[in-house]
Amino acid sequence: MKNIRQTNVNIHRDAWVEINIGNLEHNIEEIKKYVPENTKLLGVVKADAYGHGAVMLAPTILAAGIDMLGVASIDEGVDLRNAKINCEILVLGAVPVWAVETAVNAGLSISIFSEGHITACRQAFERTGIKPKVHIKIDTGMNRIGVSADNAAEFIKQVQNADFIELQGIFTHLAMAENIEETQKQIDKWNSVIENINTDNLLLHLQNTAGTMSYQVSNTNMRRVGIALYGLAPDFPPCINKQPDLRQLISLKGRIVNIHEAKKGEGISYSYTFRTDSNRMIATIPVGYADGVPRALSNKIYGILNGKRVPQIGNITMDQMMFDVTGVDAQVGDVITLLDEENSIDNWAEILGTINYELTCRLKVRLPRVYTR
User: Fold this and answer.
1) Residue from 33, 264, 270, 272 carrying the catalytic annotation
2) pLDDT tens string 136-179
3) Domain containing 125: what range?
């Protein structure tokens, strides 16, 4: 039996995700090139930093110059607080009225946009003696959450007059930052609100990653960046002449746990969606759709093994997948790289007709994280 080649990754699985911290720092420096001086940055770390590990990345994100963090839910914010992340944290999503007190006790800022939120803030203040910190969400065209632009000025003034609330900011979200005409409609609605209220000492934020790199909006003083932190690009409008130099953080790797020869005409994996046209050497790694690799990628992707491309063959199963390693120097214990900077997750997204960060969010169920520089 051949000696099993080992890597220096100290984990208890033969599959793992590697996250490159150095690339994160690089991406933040690249983002700053698009941000005016004296403009704050909010780093979006929702969905466990898009599957990259929010608790592990937050200190680096903040040290590299991001001013505050954004999450989707109170639970995500509490997780960061439990990890001793002490910066300002904004819950970007809709907060249940019954959970406002939890946010207050955790020192989280929340998004509000309804009378029910105002009432819940008053009740939380009465119980805790602490003013809830809030950002008002305006719906300028996303049609998801937020107070309508038509009613926003009145709502904002109502909150400003509430002595039991600490109003920190106002924001909206771009629905089609890649489309100049539709984005301008949202900017116009935003301006119609902001220009009719007192915005002294408030954080005003409209641009997401694509908006940050594409539009300058006068009535803003903070940008929200998410996917660019992780080295993945959103859809940009045609006005972007030079794409930012973003570097993918995430790599996905698995060690070969078995190699055997399949004879000509034999089927591989469930339903025999692949049959060999000659005798082939088949390698198996313990990565499957339960780890977040979509089954729809079966027979459509490749890995890198000892510097060579090897095609994935047969249906991807729950816990394992197979590769044709014929003609490649391969041994049990060798590493097959499914994703890295060269083999971008954008390739998978294109095959599936989806977006890159949907896929990074999937790669978080049970794969260990290894952080490198």
Assistant:
1) 270
2) 999 999 999 999 999 999 999 999 999 999 999 999 999 999 99
3) 34-225
The token pair that represents 223 in the structure block: 């940008």
Cα dist. 63→24, 30, 143 in Å? 11, 15, 35
| pLDDT score, position 8 | 53
For position 320, which CATH number holds? 2.40.37.10
**What is the SS3 assignment for 255?**
strand
pLDDT attached to residue 111: 98
Residue 243 maps to a domain: no
Catalytic residue among 40, 46, 137, 189: 46
In a domain, 355, yes or no: yes
What's the pLDDT band for 199 if we cut at 50, 70, 90?
very high
In contact, 131 and 166? CB cutoff 8 Å: yes
Measured distance CA(194)–CA(370) in Å, rounded? 44
Q: Please indicate, yes or no, whether residues 253 and 289 belong to a single structural domain of this protein.
A: yes
53 beta partners: none
Q: Does the annotation mark 270 as catalytic?
A: yes
Counting other chains too, the contacts that 151-156 makes at CB distance below 8 Å and 24 or more residues apart are 152/193, 153/193, 153/196, 153/197, 155/113, 156/193, 156/197
pTM of the model: 0.91
- Residue 229 to residue 233: CA distance in whole angstroms: 9
% of residues, the chain, pLDDT over 70: 97
Distance separating alpha carbons of residues 235 and 81, to the nearest angstrom = 32
pLDDT tens for 4-25 read 444 455 567 899 999 999 999 9
**50 annotated active-site:** no
Mean pLDDT of 242-270: 95
In a domain, 235, yes or no: no
Q: How far is it, in rounded angstroms, from Cα 325 to Cα 305? A: 8
Q: Are residues 190 and 266 in the same domain?
A: no
Do residues 55 and 196 both lie within one domain? yes
The vertex-157 CA angle with 156 and 158, nearest 5°, equals 90
Same domain, 209 and 347: no
- Between strands 250-255 and 15-20, the pairing is antiparallel
Q: How many separate domains does the chain show? A: 2
- Parallel, antiparallel, or unpaired for β 250-255 and 267-268? unpaired
Number of other CB atoms surrounding residue 267 within 10 Å: 13
